Amino acid sequence: MNATLQRGSVAIVGVAESDLGKVIPGLGPIDLMAQATARALDDCGLQLDEVDGLFATTSQSRMPTLALAEYLGIQPRYHDATNMGGASFMTMVARAQAAIEAGLCQVAVVAYGSTQRSMGRANVAAPDPNPHEAPYRPMYTASSYALAASRHMHQYGTTRRQLADIAVAARQWALLNPAAWEKRPLTVEEVLASPMISEPLTLRDCCLVTDGGGALVLTHAERARDLRRPPVYVLGVGEALGHYSISAMPDLTATAAVASGAQAYRMAGLAASDIDVLQLYDAFTITPLLFLEDLGFCPKGEGGRYVENGRIAPGGELPVNTSGGGLSYCHPGMYGIFALIEATRQLRGECGERQVADCHTALAHGNGGTLSSQSTVILGSAAAL
């Protein structure tokens, strides 16, 4: 898609979360989408009646854009409810940009909501039947990611302690984020000693289960300059599909992020070395490790050694998941939109104790399914145009 998109033609002008954690009884996913949308519009100073593009998905509604538009009382000219799992929101940024460039809409909202923690497994999509996997009774989705972790350990010598370093770094960032679910320090030893969920992944190698929603507001660059917050420009986008079932993944250690990242870098005219802050989907500790490799921040097989000694933690060489990520901040079913929210706030310089100094470029990467769909967005401040 990005072959026809123009670098910096649109900007994210508003971001917000809904209530997070465990929300009050009676709220559903559409309530949280609407709450986040209202807050994101307030963030940028636009009005609800100006929204003419609507992009939304959730595993708890069959027709989320229709449900959200009805709830908000709007009739957008353009809408898109594409579901690629947690990568959906980066892809929606690209499609919102395409729609704005084509004149199909002028102000686009991207929204998400989930009450996964409150509802438990109720109303949360189950995997499709798979005769190649079902006889082994896998724990969806942990067992799928455990396969990737096991293969990486076997092939490259990656250790459980190195995976634990990723969880500890996420917690250290979360302790600097007032909105984060986890408030207690975490050590490598505690990660290793926590209950085994699916070998080699322990409880602390796995993401949180929370309620929550988020929203982004995008518009064309010219209008963005006159709004309440500094615009955050879309510099590059890319998306790629690899497989659906983990048993069909050609190489458990290599994801389609190689392709989505290459597309985004090419459009942005940047390389991995030009990125100031990274927001990587971290449903499990193995995912940011794979994405660090596949997005070009270290060679394939070196991810375990790369994350050692606090390199991605506060004060480290490369700031990764500065909100605390899905491991320690929030993870309401699909995390991708929250990576975009944090990237935007870092570029606007709004992150307080966790703010990355001289932050002008950010990469937000989404992952859907079982390492199945990959989508990459590179964002920049005015200084990066």
TrEMBL record:
Gene3D superfamilies: 3.40.47.10. InterPro entries: Thiolase, Thiolase-like, Thiolase_C_2. Its EC number is 2.3.1.16. The keyword Membrane does not apply. Keywords: Acyltransferase, Transferase. The keyword Ligase does not apply. It is an enzyme of class 2 (transferase). Residues 238-380 form the Thiolase C-terminal domain. SUPFAM superfamilies: Thiolase-like. GO terms for molecular function: acetyl-CoA C-acyltransferase activity. NCBIfam families: PRK06158.1. PANTHER family: ACETYL-COA C-ACETYLTRANSFERASE (PTHR42870), NON-SPECIFIC LIPID-TRANSFER PROTEIN-LIKE 2 (PTHR42870:SF1). This is 3-ketoacyl-CoA thiolase. It comes from Achromobacter agilis.
